[in-house]
Amino acid sequence: MEEHIKRSPLTAFILSFLTPGVGQLYNGQLKKAVSFYLLELVLSGVMSFAGLFFSFFGMLTCGGILIGYTIFVMVDAFINAKRLQIIKAKKYNKWYLYLLIILINISLIQPLLEQFIIPPVKSYKIPAQSMAPTLMVGDHIIVNKKYYTNQSPERGDVVIFPYPPTPEKNYIKRVVGLPGETIEIKNKQVYINGQPLEEPYVMYTQSRPLPPSMAAMDKFGAVTVPNGKLFVLGDNRDNSLDSRYFGVVDIATLKGKALYIYWAKDKKRIGEDIK
């Protein structure tokens, strides 16, 4: 004798939120469940390979599509559970199978997607003023984690790296000196191989020479950047702990390049590229 089971619209809705397609599986719609799940993978893959996440408006577009698709799948599961009410139990209509699928998706499939399909971006929140006025306290930024996999750092890049004395901490600074270059600072002016560097992004808070304990901020070097290393400085030049104090940064340790601001207290700055 066939077993009939009642379907809860709310349960179907929640299951589809946890993993697209599981709500349809709960409703006894196996083909639709598989199709919905695979379609989400295809959407994520296409948007990732198109590089849309690397720009603010591209991120908004991708986010809108994925959120809209998830809502569509959840609503579909809810409506069909309400319409069907009672279904003939299938072999896969077991609570532990739903749970197993959700756990596999979260613990295995999603990490694989992040590694190979979902774009290598990460969000960071700025905790200090060392990069002002480019980045302010409370800014939320997107970083391309694999930008330097196939590219070399360039002067002017804003990079994330582990703080050399305490690698557990992340620091964000601007690349000023490249491997093989000689860096010198005289009266706050940076010189690269003896030539003054134009820095329209820099902010100074101290107009007069600083006391001896902070003299490195006004006068430094000359030093030559070793191969495989970078000399980095904060844009808030008189309030930044950077290569003047902890030395050069190993290129191999870079965690990515800062791309854009996606949230800020000053709403006018949302969407700005980090230059």
List the keywords:
single chain; 275 residues; alpha+beta; Umud Fragment, subunit A; 2 domains; seven-stranded antiparallel beta sheet; four-stranded antiparallel beta sheet; 6 helices; 13 strands
Q: What does this entry look like structurally?
A:
The protein has helices spanning 9-18, 22-26, 30-49, 56-84, 95-116, 243-246; strands at residues 4-6, 86-88, 121-125, 140-144, 158-163, 166-177, 182-186, 189-192, 195-196, 220-224, 229-233, 249-250, 256-263. With 275 residues, it is α+β, with helices and mostly antiparallel strands. Strand 5 and strand 6 form a beta hairpin. Helix 1 runs antiparallel to helix 4 and helix 3 (30-49) packs antiparallel against helix 4 (56-84). It is elongated and about 85 Å long.
What's the helix and strand layout?
Blueprint: E1 4-6, H1 9-18, H2 22-26, H3 30-49, H4 56-84, E2 86-88, H5 95-116, E3 121-125, E4 140-144, E5 158-163, E6 166-177, E7 182-186, E8 189-192, E9 195-196, E10 220-224, E11 229-233, H6 243-246, E12 249-250, E13 256-263
Antiparallel strand pairs: 1-2, 3-4, 4-13, 5-6, 5-13, 6-11, 7-8, 7-10, 8-9, 11-12
Gross geometry: elongated
CATH topological fold name of the largest domain? Umud Fragment, subunit A
Quick one: how many beta strands? Answer: 13
Q: Using the coordinates above, name the CATH class of the largest domain.
A: Mainly Beta
For the report, how would you describe the main beta sheet? 7 strands, antiparallel
Low-confidence stretches: none
Between the first and last Cα atoms, what is the distance in angstroms? 69 Å
Full CATH superfamily name of the largest domain = Umud Fragment, subunit A
Let me know the average pLDDT. 91
Query: How many domains comprise the coordinates?
Result: 2
Strand order of the largest sheet: 3-4-13-5-6-11-12
Count of individual helical segments: 6
